[in-house]
Design goal:
This protein is an alpha+beta fold. It has one domain: Protocatechuate 3,4-Dioxygenase, subunit A (Sandwich). It is about 10% helix and about 20% strand. It has 5 helices and 11 strands. Strands 1, 2, 3, 4, 7, 10 and 11 form a 7-stranded mixed β-sheet that branches. A 4-stranded antiparallel β-sheet has the order 6-5-8-9, with no helix packed on it. A hairpin with a 5-residue loop joins strand 10 and strand 11. The relative contact order is 0.27.
Amino acid sequence: MTLKPELYTRRKMLKTLGVSVAAVPMLAFLGCNSDTVSSTDTTSDTDTSTGTDTSTDTGDTTTTNDSDYVSGTTALITDDFPDDSIFETSTACVLALTQATTEGPCYFQADSDEDISDGLSGLPMMLCLQLIDSDCNPLANYEISVWHCDTSGIYSGDTSSSSDSSRFAGDFCTDGDAEAEASTWYRGSLITDSSGRVNFKTHFPGWYSGRTIHIHFKVANNNNDYVISQFCFTDAFAKEICTTHSDYKSRGEQDTTLASIDNVFGSDYEQFILNTAQNSDGTLLAYHTIQIS
């Protein structure tokens, strides 16, 4: 899919907006050892593409998929969510505080169940997050909200049922796209369970000019925001998906990488990178621990 000129111009503006940091408490991200996941690790620089056609017909036309990952709706996620062992680390719990990042102009509150894709297609992805305190104890009954753009770099924009849309930038986020303006895809909130877990079904996001591929999140409790920040993916993994997967490769590589210094993550981006692995059903698993003080 070719990026529309209007979207390109609009997204360049984020280079000035992205430098604002949210005035919220500090948090910590604990790196997770991806070796604890039984499925294939996909975070290395190695190109794992086999060239095999694994395309999926989702209704209209079938596009050749050179990726090892499946293409389609989240109905292709047939594996169960992984257990809490994916969040275990080989070292003692250490609190390494880092500043939160900007909320950005495209947030509004949206309720959901675990599937936030609203039937769209792309690379199906499990997004698993665990919230813990400074002693590594899981935190239950906290609300974790996530939001990200679709495969072509556009955010949904139907705020009609939202109780918190005062900061949403409208056309700036939707690019005036009618479908986006009538939708709430790729937005949702869940409450952490006794293990501090929330599990979403979604798709790998697309990119827009001026930003590396990212996912926004917010942690709140009793209407108080504890942290607002973002997650990202390694440059190597983003390149693999953007150049081999049928739902992304027509747009090619993202124009802003972590190595080129994304204006939000800067040079200290390691703690924001999601761990990734391939599930046995060919879908993507992305996961991370969030630690708040």
